[in-house]
Design brief:
about 260 residues; alpha+beta; five-stranded antiparallel sheet; three-stranded antiparallel sheet; 10 strands; about 25% strand; binds coenzyme A
């Protein structure tokens, strides 16, 4: 029976502390919101989420898909930040969603700006694909990636999957079709690139799948090595991956210092 997005979110929330040794983190996953419907909501019909600079940024996007994914990514980022503050920094007053401003560095990496930038000291990652967006907030550098299955993954597989990595995936996940199997690796590597790429984003082939580890409840951990020449290294990154509908969703929390230190 396929998992719903809500069940996927709850599964990841339960599994994250197990895989990542109780590192503080909060997640959000949402179906894409229609920006025109969102902007046309009558006053008082729901919390106002975007600050004025964010409304201006939304207005600058003209492509409907990008507008919708950008908006939903922002909503998810603010929800994940609020959830994080509620759970891990309860001594702070819970901010209005408009005060949790989400900006992008010149590299494109998202960050929390506005009044909460200084106090939060937390890292943020955003992803969107197909009909969904997702965000992850954590105390250390983190990454999230969501991607719908696409035949393009097979066409470009040499750019991100080496033969030995395909063998590991096939051995560990024999019941998964080739495209979903490749998609798990793609999202795991994208999430890891976002997490470790603050200074320089590594190439897909600079991250190597070392092994898969089963976890309970339909999640798989893909352990990626950051040094392709070393068979094992302390810098190996476990990435928590799962599927729902026709999408893969991967999350990674690094054990490195605070992303904003
Ligand atoms: C940044 C990148 C990882 C985004 O991945 P994607 O699968 O295209 O898109 P996703 O929806 O998963 O992620 C998009 C989000 O990633 C975040 N992002 C962008 N650049 C980032 C970076 N350098 N580090 C971390 N996160 C980044 C942003 O929040 C963005 O959403 P937003 O613009 O709405 O805020 C990817 O586009 C990339 O590798 N870019 C580098 C340039 C590159 O290699 N280009 C060649 C393409 S063939």
């Amino acid at each position: 029976m396929p998992k719903s997005p809500a069940a996927t979110l709850s599964l990841l929330e339960k599994t994250l502390p197990v895989v990542f040794s109780h590192h503080p983190a909060a997640l959000s996953l949402a179906a894409v919101v229609n920006p025109d419907a969102y902007l046309a909501r009558p006053p008082g019909s729901g919390p106002v989420v975007l600050a004025d600079p964010e409304l201006a940024a939304l207005a600058a996007y003209t492509l409907p898909k990008r507008r919708a994914q950008w908006l939903t990514g922002r909503i998810c980022a603010k929800q994940a930040t609020s959830a994080y503050l509620r759970k891990f920094l309860p001594q702070l007053p819970l901010p209005d969603a408009r005060d949790i401003m989400i900006a992008n560095l010149p590299s494109g990496r998202p960050e929390i700006a506005g009044p909460f930038a200084a106090v939060s000291g937390i890292d943020l990652s955003i992803s969107h694909s197909g009909g969904y967006a997702a965000a992850l907030v954590a105390a250390a550098a983190c990454g999230i990636d969501i991607q719908e299955d696409s035949p393009t993954l097979e066409r470009i597989c040499a750019r991100f999957c080496q033969p030995q990595e395909a063998q590991i995936l096939q051995r560990h996940l024999p019941d998964l079709q080739p495209i979903p199997r490749l998609n798990l690796l793609w999202t795991a590597k994208e999430a890891a690139r976002k997490a470790v790429g603050r200074e320089r984003m590594p190439g897909f082939l600079e991250l190597v799948l070392r092994r898969c580890e089963a976890t309970t409840g339909d999640c798989t951990v893909l352990v990626l090595g950051q040094d392709p020449s070393a068979p094992q290294s302390p810098r190996d990154l476990p990435v928590l991956t799962t599927r729902f509908e026709d999408l893969c969703l991967s999350v990674v929390l690094t054990h490195g210092g605070n992303a904003h230190a």
